[in-house]
Amino acid sequence: MIVNKSALDGVFFNLKTTYNRALQAAEPEWNKIAMMVSSGSSENRYKWMERFPAMRKWVGEKVVKQLKGQGYTIINDDFEATIEVDRNDIEDDTLGIYGPEAEMAGYSAAHLPDELVFDLVNAGFVELCYDGQPFFDTDHPVKKKNGSTVSVSNKGTAALSFATLAAAQASFGAARTALRKMKDDEERPLNIKPNILLVGPALEDTARALMMVDRLEDGKPNPFKGSAEVVVSSRLTSDTAWYLLDTTKPVKPFIYQQRKAPVFVSQTNMDSESVFMQKKYRYGAEARGAAGFSFWQMAYGSTGTV
User: Fold this and answer.
1) pLDDT, greater one: 224 or 186
2) Coil, helix or strand for 72?
3) Total structural domains in the chain?
4) How many of the other CB atoms lie within 10 Å of CB of 292?
């Protein structure tokens, strides 16, 4: 094959087609626990998380909720996956060897949000959220109507269990109760409805049994059967940690912030240094984005160590 602009355009079209096919065929997991927020700059500031307006009885003048000067900021990062194509392979019509690379680039691009969101879940016991506390923590400061501040917990240590009714109540039951009791700064219930039980592969059998069996191992009726959907992710690194989430609302516990969706790009200038010095053309995927925490009140995490 003669290497000219037409030939290079054909190479780009074929690799892009393979990339897009893999991108569209992927089945990401992140959208089960996170919401996507579009970004129009290098970062997004989420000042609305400090005081989220809710409907109240209108008596006299409206009560205007002021956004605090300091907000939670999520900074976008750049991501790439690059393929080098040797000019000899174009001349020799042996481009089939690059198909799997283009396919893996598409697969990787499709699962970039998974990687970002679940890395965030893994770090949830140490990474800070909008109130300056770790996302899963025992001391989230919440103001009351009288101006005082109380500490609220969305973190536990109990191991997920279906061995006995007491063990199930101390783990899943305690998490569900803690979330359902969440209130806003006017002491009104937030109406949290836990619906996702998120676990890693090591806890899959335990989680599915707890959500499916009629009776627990001690023979007592299972009051938690069918109360949440089990989501299992191999990207969760802990063998003991588990999470209970509310994803029923427009706002979800985690954020995938997308600045630029994955796009297939090329460097095929025949006068470029890489072509002249190394006879290499470059193709690949680029994306910009980040992940961050939303409301901690919508998620409960247990280290599962007790």
Assistant:
1) 224
2) strand
3) 1
4) 24
pTM for this entry:
0.86
Max CA separation in the chain (angstroms): 81
As to burial, measured by CB atoms within 10 angstroms (0-12 exposed, 13-18 middle, 19+ buried), residue 129 is buried
Structure-model confidence comparison of residues 30 and 146, the more confident one: 30
Quote the CA–CA distance of 135 and 140 in Å, as a whole number.
Answer: 9
Which structural domain, as residue segments, surrounds residue 167? 5-51+72-302
Q: What's the rounded Cα separation, in Å, for the pair 102 and 20?
A: 9
How far, in Å, CA of 34 to CA of 21, rounded?
Answer: 24
Residues 103 and 22 sit within 8 Å (Cβ to Cβ): yes
Measured from the Cβ of residue 169, the count of other Cβ atoms closer than 10 Å reads 16
Please state whether beta strands 254-267 and 34-38 pair in parallel, antiparallel, or not at all (unpaired): parallel
CATH code: domain of residue 175: 3.90.1690
Helix axes 5-25, 99-110, angle to 10 degrees: 40
* 118 part of a folded domain: yes
Angle at 279 between CA 276 and CA 282, to 5 degrees: 105
- Per-residue pLDDT band at 64 (split at 50, 70, 90): very low
